[in-house]
Amino acid sequence: MLKRTVSISGPDTALMVHYGQIEVSRNGERIGSFPAEDVGVLIADTPTARYTHGTLLELLRHNAAVVFCDEKHMPAGMLLPVEANSVQAQRLHAQAEAKKPLLKRLWQEIIRAKIRRQAALLQELGRLEYAFLRDLARKVQSGDPHNVEAQAARFYWPALFGKEFRRVREGSPPNGLLNYGYMVVRAAVARALCGAGLHPSLGLHHTNKYNAFALADDLLEPLRPLVDRTVQRLASAGQVEVDAKTKPVLLNLLAGETALSGPGSGPLLVAIERYASSLAAVFCGESKALEIPEMCATEGGKLEVRDEGRGARGAEVLAPEGGTLEEIPDVHAPAGGNPGEMPDMQAPEGGKIEKPGATPPVGAIKDPGSPERAQ
Length: 375
Fold this sequence. Notes:
Strand content: 5-15%
CATH architecture: Up-down Bundle
Shape: globular
Mean pLDDT: 80
Structural class: alpha+beta
Number of domains: 1
CATH superfamily: CRISPR-associated endonuclease Cas1, C-terminal domain
CATH topology: Four Helix Bundle (Hemerythrin (Met), subunit A)
Number of helices: 10
Strand order of the largest sheet: 8-7-5-1-12
Largest sheet: 5 strands, mixed
Distance between the termini: 33 Å
Number of strands: 14
């Protein structure tokens, strides 16, 4: 069964559990309910919400992630289940004992996948910069010592949202939409890591001692273009703020159709669980590569960077069939199923980026100038 993503908002909202059902009330009056076992991620997006201890415990028993947001709709904390896998001890040992060369090789794989997906998105939108990013992806070395990720970001963000756009957490719209979308996917990644028997704070590359979800941030990187594509469509339609119209769209990301390894496709939430399990298999020596989710094109299959001239098809986020939660005011529960986003990476200042041979014609790509923080 596909887990759901539930967002709780509105003043004076209270949650309590009754025979496995999470009951939602406002001003003392019951306004709806949903099964605790159906929840993959619950986002408490109001500082005035109240919860019973039993409610949070019931959600954790069903392996749900609970994200708490502040008054700016930014993630402030997250609850995750402690025991979510029967072989957790074995996998935690394997994760903690992973050697540096393995961690650097995994980071190389993740960053290559991220840049390739960024290039695929730009090609889908008809942006010539995709060719430069495609070539940059080939230059990523073990551990990405030359920070190719940041070099790609210098061209990616202006190509996606315009030359005036700067990707900073507290920046102008649509930065808020990006933050919110990343939060939703990050929560699902952290939940999947716990379900795979791994610890979300033992990262491959991110090592900030104040970041309890470093590994979730690592695995989030190649999934960011999935959020970027949705935000770009919202921005193109004139919707650039986090509000009652845009939040359900971003919450539904986890139900969006995603190309899986091998034939077929499935919801992003399922693909993330396979992604986390593949990392556990690599740590335990059972596999060599990660199963990183791919963006899915409208008519099925993977959205890949193609040779110039073939044309790119658009893509739609498809919700799975069957059932929705009871509609209640200010409680958004689209099908599918954090907090915070990873610390921003500062692009290197000064100097020129050496362009590989197969690049767009001179003048097709303009250097956006001094880079801001990029992701």
